[in-house]
Structure to design on (336 residues):
């Protein structure tokens, strides 16, 4: 099949491209060409801006792609561009949404595709919900052949996951220099991490499947950990004993507002995913990589080149402020 990836060199999409090539598909990547990961040389590369509707329409018209996978649509305007370009031009369009669209606060920790979508805390999730709604409308009214795919926290070698501190090298820098790292709440909320090669197995398995048209799927691991266990595993791979402090999620959001959406709108809650639906659609889907397996690759990727070991000084300073607040709170507790 001829496959077009909008994106294709990112954290998740790079694994999907690689697997598509391994399965013998003819793959084209459309991206700006600015990612840390370079395109696989076996791909055709079209460099451009997804917001350039004329360029995207020409690509769709000339390419005659069987499957289009959009990893870089974040707003309803992006979806309108997709609809203008690919309506009548592809047999299957897959939109990468996000598991953060599921109802927050959740009524149950166990999430299935029937869980309602609603997120008053995070604009990113709300925009993804709007994108989904527009695609459902296009499917119902015009039979646009769409599928919605919702990753949870999915990471590859270029990411080092965290709920507090972002997905870069900053927390590893702190671990290696003996500085505390911050865990939200009491560190015991449940979470699921998925390595990008596992996600790719489910995602590529959906290509051109009639049963996938008009449907939504999440694709996640079934390894469930607490956030403190996640940080402990990272520290174990780095080879240090972590110093973990705990602060309420609301306090973290107040001390560093950029963390508010992703924390209060997603990671502050326990979530476990029922993957029955993707397993029915792709019977051989099974997440094989443990979180430790993935983190070993992430640390190795960063350690292979000092230029990759970038510390976000703004985040680092914010974490220091949180540590200082924690010390004050603990000092008051001792005197009460």
């Amino acid at each position: 099949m001829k496959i077009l990836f909008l994106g294709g060199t990112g954290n998740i999409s790079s694994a999907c491209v690689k697997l598509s090539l391994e399965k013998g598909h003819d793959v084209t990547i459309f991206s700006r060409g600015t990612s840390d990961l370079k395109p696989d040389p076996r791909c055709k590369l079209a460099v451009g801006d997804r917001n350039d509707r004329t360029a995207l329409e020409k690509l769709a018209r000339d390419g005659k792609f069987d499957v289009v996978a959009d990893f870089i649509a974040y707003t309803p305007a992006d979806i309108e561009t997709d609809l203008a370009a690919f309506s009548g031009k592809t047999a299957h369009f897959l939109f990468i949404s996000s598991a953060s669209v599921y109802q927050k606060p959740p009524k149950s920790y166990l999430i299935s595709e029937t869980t309602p979508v609603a997120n008053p805390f995070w604009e990113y999730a709300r925009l993804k919900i709007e994108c989904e709604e527009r695609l459902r409308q296009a499917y119902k009214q015009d039979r646009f052949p769409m599928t919605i795919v919702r990753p949870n926290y999915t990471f590859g070698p270029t990411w080092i996951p965290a709920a507090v501190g972002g997905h870069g090298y900053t927390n590893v820098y702190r671990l290696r220099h003996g500085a505390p790292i911050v865990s939200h709440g009491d560190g015991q909320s449940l979470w699921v991490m998925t390595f990008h090669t596992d996600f790719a197995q489910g995602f590529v398995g959906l290509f051109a499947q009639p049963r996938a048209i008009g449907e939504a799927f999440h694709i996640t691991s079934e390894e469930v950990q607490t956030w403190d266990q996640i940080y402990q595993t990272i520290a174990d791979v780095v080879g240090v004993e972590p110093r973990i402090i705990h602060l309420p999620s609301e306090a973290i959001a107040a001390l560093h507002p950029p963390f508010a959406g992703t924390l209060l709108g997603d990671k502050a809650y326990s979530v476990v995913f029922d993957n029955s639906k993707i397993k029915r659609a792709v019977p051989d889907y099974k997440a094989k990589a443990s979180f430790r397996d993935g983190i070993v690759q992430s640390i190795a990727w960063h350690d292979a080149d000092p230029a990759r070991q970038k510390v976000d000084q703004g985040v680092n300073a914010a974490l220091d402020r949180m540590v200082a607040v924690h010390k004050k709170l603990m000092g008051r507790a001792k005197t009460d």
The domain at 2-155+193-219 is CATH 3.40.50.720 (Rossmann fold).
